Amino acid sequence: MPEVKTETFHEAWDCSGCGIVGLSAYNCKQCPSCGAPLDEEGVYRTQEPVDNYQFKGRDIICAHCETRNEKRFSCRNCGASLTDDDDEQVKAFVYKSNSDGQPISKRVQNRSTRTGRTNDANTLGTTNVKNDSRRWWLIAGCCAVFAILCIAWVVIQARAVIPVTLTADRAHWSYHLSLEDYQPRQKTLTVEEGTFGSPPTDAYNVTSNRVFIRFEPVYVWKTIPKTCTSTSSRSNGDGTWSQTTTRYDCSYRDKVKVGDDDIWGTRYEYTVDRWEAIPPLTKEGWDQKPRFPTFTTPSHCLSSQPTHGCIRAVSEPKTIFTIHFFYYDEEEREDVSTVMSRDIWESIRLGSDYPALVNGFGNIQAVKGIHPEYESLRE
Taking the complete model, does pTM exceed 0.85, yes or no? Predict the structure, then answer.
């Protein structure tokens, strides 16, 4: 069964002026000895009973809220001065209690009027929450607008068409041919006990050994004992708070590691003949006279039973032809390049000028005589 415990706490404060301790924060807003006002930041909760001191001063009924005040300097309810000047609120003692018996914050109390009326703390608190929410929504909206503007700017710059004159500066060519060779390959295969696996059928020089592979954790379901505590508090409306603490069983089931099992298996070592990739055949140059290497796969390497040491081409060779241009944007040199077919590449004259179109980032959109879409983009 749950164990329920209820405790009562008093809200109290200590006077920093004369040292009196244990004053009620609910209806004792001034020190009865020196008249110092309650310090909201110094309010604390205690289980020790607090004294509701009667203040020195006049026995009077407050003209503002009709609360009876006995021997006080100011109204114990609204803080109004208990002097002949009843329409002036004492600025030094503007503290009062809200509906929950807690002092209203100074920020809220500073909104009090000269007639002694104070704003409702709960209403102002709700308003502040709403204002904070609106502020965050405003910040989020501004960020979203900024992101949209940035995306729009990038799109506009990417789609921009700016006419320039490009000068052919350098030519570059490259050659790449992927290769692989046929050799005996040393392989290893580890198979756990209880699973299936073995070397390929064309493997030779096969050896096997029983080996330890790893530890396998062993888990079992167990009930884990646990006691949870929940605490709730409420105001009693008289400057005291009731705190209820409930202790209850919240045990749960979980998997618990109780040990490890040794996992064993078989490790195979064997040799197998396989084609595997080797470094490719490459070449490049910075001129318009490409000199490509030649490679021909021997016929015996194309058979179903090639010999060790055979080398073959994996695919057709890849060639890339690039022209590097430059142009001036407000007297600043910009370098750009574009890839093209070999026949157009060979027709380009280095040092010659070519009308072209670039986007807002300076990337080539089209070059006259190279890209067919030049005329359509220019329009």
Answer: no
